[in-house]
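2024-03-11 09:14:02 INFO worker-7 job=invfold-0412 stage=load source=structure_tokens
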């Protein structure tokens, strides 16, 4: 029977990116049963499996005896709701046996906190479509929209909506076929309204990971807000433009050499986006080749990372916890975090 490993992530929220992370990690680690468990310990081994989990998730989840991070992102602390100073200390106390991150910006942030890491790319890059399409004359332009209650650069999602609407109108006028691809259930209502306003098609099978990847592979380019819309596009070797609502989008774009095709939402205008889009189409073959090179590199790095983590896990004294036998580490975790809370209150009172 496969060993059970605690899997830290954000599954079961109808968010395609997070579902894809779990899906691909289970394929990459077939020897283990990855049990999604953010609030209890299934065994004495935990895999932080991807997504922007540091530095705050070690505070949210129980700290285990043996911890691994596989292709995680590190969040700019300006984008963490109710940020606590103990997050960085708890990340250090997690004592990751291997800490492998999504991109070079994540690595740089960790280094500034005195934490070493290795860049292996986003885990979803290991997904492959049934067929890579290389037709530069395709008129399909994949569009991903997402809405975050103004938690974006510039705090103005109304402007994003207007500028993207103007951009899609430009695409239609110039013979392109923009198709909207949702990545989160919560976005569907506004996406459908956006599509109805412009008479655009919405891809309906977006909750199916393989179908979505295969459909994106048929496009000429993708323009998206959701981070994993960009990762899916890269995995399909389809050049993309990142609408950076959050620094993590730039971290990924930079990791695959697309930092020049990234617009922060507070600087977004239809004119800038049109200019960048035309530049991307002009240089499409070069950028597609660059994607192939970067993605292939990260796929190899991830295979090597899986081998290292697997070898290390097999060397451990594995314990399959029943509920009570895991209480030691949960209790220890509770004491550590409560001590930080008390310390913070004392510091606030004395200042």
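2024-03-11 09:14:09 INFO worker-7 stage=emit residues=351
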């Amino acid at each position: 029977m496969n060993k059970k490993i605690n899997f830290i992530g954000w599954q079961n929220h109808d968010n395609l990116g997070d579902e894809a992370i779990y899906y691909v990690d289970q394929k990459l680690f077939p020897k283990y049963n990855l049990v999604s468990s953010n609030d209890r310990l299934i065994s004495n081994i935990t895999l932080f499996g991807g997504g922007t989990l540091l530095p705050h998730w070690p505070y949210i989840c129980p700290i285990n005896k043996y911890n691994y991070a596989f292709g995680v992102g590190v969040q700019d602390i300006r984008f963490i709701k109710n940020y606590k100073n103990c997050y960085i200390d708890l990340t250090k106390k997690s004592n990751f046996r291997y800490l492998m991150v999504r991109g070079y910006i994540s690595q740089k942030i960790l280094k500034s906190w005195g934490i070493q890491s290795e860049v292996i790319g986003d885990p979803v890059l290991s997904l492959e479509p049934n067929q890579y399409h290389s037709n530069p004359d395709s008129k399909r332009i994949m569009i991903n929209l997402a809405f975050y209650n103004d938690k974006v650069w510039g705090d103005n999602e109304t402007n994003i909506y207007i500028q993207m609407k103007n951009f899609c109108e430009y695409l239609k006028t110039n013979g392109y076929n923009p198709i909207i691809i949702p990545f989160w259930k919560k976005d569907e209502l506004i996406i459908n309204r956006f599509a109805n306003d412009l008479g655009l098609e919405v891809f309906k099978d977006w909750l199916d990971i393989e179908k979505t990847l295969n459909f994106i592979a048929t496009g000429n380019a993708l323009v998206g807000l959701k981070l994993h819309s960009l990762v899916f596009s890269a995995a399909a070797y389809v050049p993309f433009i990142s609408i950076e609502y959050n620094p993590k989008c730039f971290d990924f774009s930079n990791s695959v050499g697309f930092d020049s095709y990234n617009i922060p939402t507070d600087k977004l205008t239809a004119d800038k986006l049109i200019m960048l889009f035309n530049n991307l189409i002009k240089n499409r073959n070069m950028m597609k080749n660059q994607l192939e090179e970067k993605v292939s590199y990260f796929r190899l790095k991830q295979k090597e990372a899986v081998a290292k983590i697997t070898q290390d896990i097999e060397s451990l004294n594995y314990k399959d916890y029943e509920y009570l036998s895991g209480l030691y580490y949960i209790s220890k975790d509770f004491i550590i975090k409560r001590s930080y809370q008390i310390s913070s209150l004392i510091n606030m009172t004395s200042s």
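2024-03-11 09:14:09 INFO worker-7 stage=report msg="Residues 3-123+298-350 form one domain."
2024-03-11 09:14:10 INFO worker-7 job finished
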